[in-house]
């Protein structure tokens, strides 16, 4: 029989890429139950996964209490071999109510809120709740250092391959896929506009496709800028799309844009799309965060500052050096960052190790009980 795994999250199933990929590539070894919010988004189905949706009706306190209670209820009813929990505020309460359960707490991000007091409050609470857990996984070694963790599992980001054929770089087609929230994307748009303006004789002119959301002030600002400067033919926005809708855009593009503001709170946050561009054979222009700098080198792209002028200069440099890029070479070089590889060599290795330790502990406990009973009978 398969071992059982419960994944706990504050995200709706399928909308956090990491856990979706864990489920997609681990269901052959584990019977998986996923518990998370119901945000009312279209439901993503994986036949092998039992997804449980928690309503968000009620005020903030009521919603959070309902989510934590559902976590606890599902653990009690299913008695899983392993519980993998994305950090959710109050998760330590669930751990205390299930002391003997085999938990691993996963940290995908520290706070990236623009307000320093909000970041301080969130990160302080996270560090406090970490103290209740023996097994912890983190997205990067940099995050582990910031949390002052000595013992942890590294569970890095991966990416999916959305293009398998060789790219031509005669006409540059840039692609950005990601969130707009707190990313200051207007600077990236202004940089692309400046890049276009410095050489208006390009034929055919470069294009820039932007996929992401949510719909809000940042996206509205970008759309307004495009309209005001008559850039509709050069810059196309699609809004947010699901993963299964991305392939045509990766196939049409030949340069990926990984624009992340250069801020201390973003420095150790890897970008899923940086990996997905590279795994799909797209050279990348990326801002010089610590994590981008670790994986982007001269053979697969360039690094640039996050100011309008610096990023525009980076766009010019990637155009000037486009003849050195080979999409097949890039795809081969970064194949070890595929989600399939990450799940097999990091996620499943970790989960199986924890499950085996727990199984052995139960055997030892049973032997101890049997030994005591046998001793009393004698």
Question: Could you give the topology of this structure?
Answer:
Elements: E1 3-8, H1 17-26, E2 30-37, E3 49-54, H2 60-78, E4 82-86, H3 91-97, E5 103-107, H4 116-130, E6 136-138, H5 141-146, E7 153-154, E8 173-177, H6 185-197, E9 207-211, H7 217-228, E10 235-239, H8 247-252, E11 255-258, H9 272-279, E12 284-287, H10 290-295, E13 301-304, H11 308-320, H12 327-333, H13 339-377
Parallel strand pairs: 1-2, 1-4, 2-3, 4-5, 5-6, 6-7, 8-9, 8-11, 9-10, 11-12, 12-13
Helix pairs in contact: 1-13, 2-3, 6-7, 6-11
Could you provide a short overview of the structure?
This protein has helices at 17-26, 60-78, 91-97, 116-130, 141-146, 185-197, 217-228, 247-252, 272-279, 290-295, 308-320, 327-333, 339-377, and strands at 3-8, 30-37, 49-54, 82-86, 103-107, 136-138, 153-154, 173-177, 207-211, 235-239, 255-258, 284-287, 301-304.
Describe the fold and architecture.
With 378 residues, this protein is of the alpha/beta class. 37% of the residues are buried. The chain is 43% helix and 16% strand. The chain has helices at residues 17-26, 60-78, 91-97, 116-130, 141-146, 185-197, 217-228, 247-252, 272-279, 290-295, 308-320, 327-333, 339-377; strands at residues 3-8, 30-37, 49-54, 82-86, 103-107, 136-138, 153-154, 173-177, 207-211, 235-239, 255-258, 284-287, 301-304. The chain has a seven-stranded parallel β-sheet with strand order 3-2-1-4-5-6-7, sandwiched between helices. Strands 10-9-8-11-12-13 form a six-stranded parallel β-sheet, sandwiched between helices. The two termini are 37 Å apart.
């Amino acid at each position: 029989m398969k071992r059982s795994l419960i994944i706990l999250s504050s995200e709706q199933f399928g909308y956090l890429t990491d856990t979706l990929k864990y489920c997609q590539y681990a269901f052959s070894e584990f019977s998986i139950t996923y518990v998370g919010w119901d945000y009312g988004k279209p439901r993503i189905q994986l036949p092998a996964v039992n997804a449980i949706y928690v309503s968000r009706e009620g005020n903030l306190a009521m919603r959070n209490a309902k989510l934590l209670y559902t976590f606890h209820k599902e653990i009690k009813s299913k008695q899983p071999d392993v519980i993998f929990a994305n950090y959710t505020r109050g998760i330590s309460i669930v751990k205390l109510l299930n002391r003997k359960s085999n938990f691993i707490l996963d940290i995908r991000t520290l706070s990236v809120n623009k307000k320093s007091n909000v970041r301080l409050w969130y990160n302080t609470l996270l560090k406090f709740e970490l103290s209740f857990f023996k097994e912890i996984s983190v997205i990067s070694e940099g995050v582990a250092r910031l949390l002052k963790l000595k013992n942890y599992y590294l569970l890095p980001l991966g990416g999916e391959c959305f293009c398998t054929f060789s790219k031509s770089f005669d006409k540059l087609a840039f692609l950005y896929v990601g969130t707009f929230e707190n990313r200051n994307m207007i600077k990236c748009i202004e940089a692309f506009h400046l890049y276009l303006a410095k050489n208006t004789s390009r034929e055919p002119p470069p294009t820039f496709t932007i996929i992401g959301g949510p719909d809000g002030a940042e996206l509205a600002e970008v759309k307004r800028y495009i309209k005001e400067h008559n850039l509709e033919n050069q810059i196309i926005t699609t809004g947010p799309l699901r993963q299964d809708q991305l392939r045509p855009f990766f196939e049409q593009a030949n340069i990926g844009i990984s624009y992340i503001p250069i801020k201390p709170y973003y420095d150790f946050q890897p970008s899923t799309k940086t990996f997905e561009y590279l795994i799909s054979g797209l050279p990348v222009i990326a801002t010089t965060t610590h994590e981008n700098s670790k994986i982007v080198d001269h053979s697969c792209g360039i690094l640039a500052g996050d100011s309008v002028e610096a990023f525009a200069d980076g766009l010019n440099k990637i155009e000037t050096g486009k003849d050195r890029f080979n999409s097949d070479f890039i795809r081969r070089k970064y194949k070890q960052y595929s989600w399939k590889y990450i799940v097999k060599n990091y996620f499943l290795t970790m989960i199986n190790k924890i499950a085996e330790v727990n199984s052995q502990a139960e055997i030892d406990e049973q032997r101890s009980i049997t030994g005591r009973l046998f001793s009393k009978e004698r």
